[in-house]
Specification:
2 helices, alpha+beta, Protein trichome birefringence-like 40, TBL, TBL_C, 4 strands, four-stranded mixed beta sheet
Length: 77
Amino acid sequence: MPRFDGKEFMRRYRGKKIMYIGDSLSLNNFESLLCLLHSSLPKSKSKFKQHINKQTVSVTFQCMELKILFHQITCRH
């Protein structure tokens, strides 16, 4: 399996939005992707926003206009 290339990933998804929807396992995957991308472009500016409902978080890598969002689903029994 080839090594992950964060710069290439951001180039491919430039100007796009990626959304994770799920539970804590999806949150872990979301956070891991953010760490991988940040480490590939450590000096790039990013903007973090937690939305009003506090279930949705977005991070925008401004240099690539790439927005990654996470929306947490809560189960009610």
